[in-house]
């Protein structure tokens, strides 16, 4: 009887859903991101104004997504990546 109740509880739990996007982010995370000089300048100026609100910055940089800009910022300003 105890095993039956346990089985029902386990079946009732929601399983985490993984989408294609989550896998894509993990695989793209370490790729170097090339930015033009104008894009870099705009990102640095916008960061000074709004901080790490990447969605707002991405709206100003044509063709770039917020996650891409955030990864670029981390790779550019992190001590770990500057040593590589």
UniProtKB/TrEMBL annotation:
> Which organism is this protein's natural source?
Arabidopsis lyrata subsp. lyrata (Lyre-leaved rock-cress)
GO CC annotations, alphabetized? nucleus
**Myb-like domain boundaries:** 31-79
Q: Which Pfam families match?
A: Myb_DNA-binding
One of its GO biological process terms is: cell differentiation
- Domain of life, source organism: Eukaryota
- Entry's CDD domains? SANT
Which UniProt keywords are present, listed alphabetically?
DNA-binding, Nucleus
Give the main location: nucleus
Q: What protein name does the entry list?
A: DNA binding protein
Q: Which GO terms describe its molecular function?
A: transcription cis-regulatory region binding
InterPro entries xrefs: Homeodomain-like_sf, Myb_TF_plants, SANT/Myb
The record, for SUPFAM superfamilies, names:
Homeodomain-like
